[in-house]
Amino acid sequence: MKETIKSLFLTLLVVVSMVQSYYLIYRLPGSDPIVKSENEYIVAESMGTQLEVESMIFPAQILIHMGDDRHSVFYPESTFYNLIYSRLGGRQFGGFQRYSLENINWTDIRRRHEGIELKFENSVPVTLLQKAMQISPDPLFDAESIDRILIYNTENEDQVRVFFFSSDGNVVYEATKVDLTVQDVKQQINFGEEWVPYTLVDGYYIPEKSIDLVETGLPTGLYTAEQLQRSLNFDSSITRYIREKNGSEIYTDSKRSLQVRQDRNWVNFTDPAAPSTGDNSPSKNILSAIDFVNQHDGWSGKYRLEQSEGRDDDKHIVKFQQYYGTAQYGAFPILDTSTFHYGTITLEMRQGTITGYERSLLYIKEGTWFKKVVTLPGGKELREKIKRVSNEAFITNLYPAYLPSLSEEGLLLTPTWVVELSNGATRVLK
């Protein structure tokens, strides 16, 4: 009888031990289950492609100046844009001299001279631009960041002048040693002769004719919280799950946190305690940001370096803008709006270390489910649209973009005109 009781007692102890082991492995006190069994665990698929820095540094626009105040504009991925940028990428630029920006009437040069202008819109460190263009090393110039390059023929057409504009807005650098001839510039300017004419107005360009873009529907997938935890190397054995009243899901290991907004298809990763080492240079932070995305979630489509901005607290913000388009019509940015977050990947850096990371949970799959050519107005009709927002602030830029929306079929990209204002606001012209 005693042996029977002992056997039953030992069996009970084994069962209790197994139950305790289950709760220790699969649940944490005060939280919902986060670790799945092998059968329930989601197998991670590829979360995107890897990109090199040189593929993400390209002008938002290439402006063609044809003299007599005649202009045209080429956009990324279009045939003439690719042809001009690839040719310039093979040319040598060196012998830099520094000047004050205010000493030259740049608007007058753009109106009178034949030339090409690469407009990056953002601050691009020279050390990274050297990966896309043949720029000779220069101790003074290498420490700069630039936002545009102006190449033009002099009035007597016996010299090509090339200027790199510092993004600080105060100085400009002239490359005095270039292997571009007057005929090289003329040949590329000729691409704009039969293209849509643009008018220079207060620093931005308005097309005098309508332009065509393609409204496109793209199938999409959705990254899961489990995939993101695996890609960001969360330790599931110590990760807690918290659900907030606003619907946010937070996964934390007490040092790092992953906030998932399923209602917005948006994720925010923070690692405030990440160790910071080395310098805080823009180029190092940008390269580290690209490496981080390459090693973890990857890229869904084509991206351009959109922002590289330092802050007083030693933090550096690096932002990448997603583009979509075709060779026939060009590629354009996908807008990140207040009502629908999509199209950007933003990283917060400190001395080359990631302390914050935001992106959409949505990603684009292969193929399309809808395509239609859409005409965006130019000339008088476009001027009327611009006039409606011009009293809000000074207009600094005008460009075509895609306005995203989500349907049951996937992501719909609708072409639209966008203006940027001097107060930092962006307005969609309707």
From TrEMBL:
<dbReference type="Pfam" id="PF07435">
    <property type="entry name" value="YycH"/>
</dbReference>
<dbReference type="InterPro" id="IPR042274">
    <property type="entry name" value="YycH/YycI_2"/>
</dbReference>
<dbReference type="InterPro" id="IPR009996">
    <property type="entry name" value="YycH"/>
</dbReference>
<protein>
    <recommendedName>
        <fullName>Regulatory protein YycH domain-containing protein</fullName>
    </recommendedName>
</protein>
<feature type="domain" description="Regulatory protein YycH">
    <location>
        <begin position="3"/>
        <end position="423"/>
    </location>
</feature>
